[in-house]
């Protein structure tokens, strides 16, 4: 028999912002950092986090019911996942993305309806029309943005290190390298590789600090430049992660053509994103990310693996393939 329709899923989706904001606020006020040294009871956490007595119990118990805290005999503790990924002092911290979501994206998504009706971006400084100019002009916001990019790239970087045949190559450059998560991950996993990060000059000191903290300054360097104005550095492999979706179709094609030009014969281009499935019916994250590009950029959009393969072939790449990485992320590889 067919089950009777229920509104439960629809109501849960419509109110899912409750869950999101509870988690984002927990990261912001340092709940998981406060528990990194060990479990604590309600009075101790309330005082340590500066919570109001009216809010503390419901807030911490809600996090417990959401399975992002544990509670036993009135004592709260991190879960294995939150202790590994949401404690700021750990190298595995991915909360930078959540910090950016809390500081910027949460408010911007409140204007989704307007974006859907106008096709215009809705994030801060929308009148200026240059999201990246505003971000890169403010050192503190830039550091937060680059840390967020590390968070969103960490899992994909590890998968690329494992799945791509790096034994066949010696050098690579990460275009739009941000803080340097991808170069650091690749160089750490493959001692024979040397590489570089290519990004706007303001990123250089942040990239160098991150590389130095991972003891890889001898094999990783920074190349300053603008990938629309300057030629890309030459290397055996070029990586573009979460870059193409920022731009319109003409700009996407321009970047792929520049990558083709910079590669040697036999070289490879790796493009990775939350690729939309070819049928556009399964990868909800990829489709929602494309709506995020609507809100954040003037012409950006996400795309399928088949789309990217077609653009690569137009640029001259002789062979292309798509391979899943982790979660919603996949990579498209083009060989020259």
UniProtKB/TrEMBL annotation:
The record's listing under CDD domains reads: AdoMet_MTases (cd02440)
> Could you identify this protein by its name?
Methyltransferase
Q: Name one Pfam family in it.
A: Dimerisation
Per its UniProt record, what PANTHER family does this chain match? O-METHYLTRANSFERASE CICE, PUTATIVE (AFU_ORTHOLOGUE AFUA_4G14580)-RELATED
Report a single Gene Ontology molecular function: methyltransferase activity
| Alphabetical list of Gene3D superfamilies matching this protein | Vaccinia Virus protein VP39, Winged helix-like DNA-binding domain superfamily/Winged helix DNA-binding domain
Q: Which domain of life is it from?
A: Bacteria
**Boundaries of every O-methyltransferase C-terminal domain copy:** 109-317
For this chain's UniProt record, which GO biological process terms are given? methylation
Domain (O-methyltransferase dimerisation) spans 15-87
Please indicate if the UniProt record lists Cytoplasm as a keyword: no
Q: Cross-referenced SUPFAM superfamilies, in alphabetical order?
A: S-adenosyl-L-methionine-dependent methyltransferases, Winged helix' DNA-binding domain
Q: Which UniProt keywords apply?
A: Methyltransferase, S-adenosyl-L-methionine, Transferase
